[in-house]
């Protein structure tokens, strides 16, 4: 399944526009908050895919029947750029456990790169719904590598991958290598630079959210 948020007009288009706008980006707090809001919107859409059970709720005047999720998903993100986006998911799934991944690119002599996953800290994912949220889905290599490592260790019941902005190439890479995954994307851009930056994209999400690294 592939869901693209901006294929339908909604207020989320305003959040996406501000995230891309180089002038608005100078307000780091707003940049982080807009990622959160898109995360909240995608978390709501994913919630429609969860399993539900009917319960009775005692009100001051009687008993209300309502369907609630059987359990919260486990959320995951790749440090550091994905933290604000991940926060949006936590705002919605407020009882969810979280997994965190540290990874970075290693550039080869020929200019290509490999993904070095340094550490994965995760709760038990056995039989769980897992949502991996990362702000930018460029080549898709890091997301695929992380998910494959987790799928070897755990029998994950349902896998969802969410991104604010993805490249068309990254989407196809994930769909080819993780056919069981559902993708939830804010917007898909067609181009990437030779250094794997999405065009028009929004720039370096980690630096814009937290400051330039040295």
TrEMBL record:
Pfam families: UPRTase (PF14681). The keyword Chaperone does not apply. One of its GO terms (molecular function) is uracil phosphoribosyltransferase activity. Keywords: Glycosyltransferase, Transferase. Gene3D superfamilies: 3.40.50.2020. Residues 13-211 form the Phosphoribosyltransferase domain. SUPFAM superfamilies: PRTase-like (SSF53271). InterPro entries: PRTase-like, PRTase_dom. Its EC number is 2.4.2.9. This is Uracil phosphoribosyltransferase.
């Amino acid at each position: 399944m592939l869901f693209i948020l901006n294929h339908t007009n909604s207020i989320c288009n305003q959040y996406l526009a501000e995230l891309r706008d180089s002038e608005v980006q100078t307000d780091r707090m707003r940049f982080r908050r807009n990622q959160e809001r898109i995360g909240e919107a995608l978390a709501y859409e994913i919630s429609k895919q969860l399993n539900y059970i009917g319960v009775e709720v005692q009100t001051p005047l009687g008993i209300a029947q309502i369907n609630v999720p059987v359990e919260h998903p486990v959320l995951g993100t790749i440090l550091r750029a994905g933290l604000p986006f991940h926060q949006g998911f936590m705002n919605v799934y407020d009882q969810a456990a979280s997994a965190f991944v540290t990874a970075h690119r290693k550039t080869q002599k020929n200019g290509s790169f490999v993904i070095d996953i340094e550490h994965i800290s995760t709760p038990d994912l056995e039989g769980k719904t897992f949502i991996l949220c990362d702000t930018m889905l460029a080549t898709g290599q890091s997301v695929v590598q992380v998910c494959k490592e987790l799928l070897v260790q755990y029998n994950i019941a349902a896998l969802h991958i969410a991104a604010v902005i993805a490249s068309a190439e990254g989407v196809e890479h994930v769909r080819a290598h993780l056919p069981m995954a559902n993708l939830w994307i804010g917007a898909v851009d067609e181009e990437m630079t030779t250094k794997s930056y999405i065009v028009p994209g929004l720039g370096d999400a980690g630096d814009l959210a937290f400051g330039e690294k040295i």
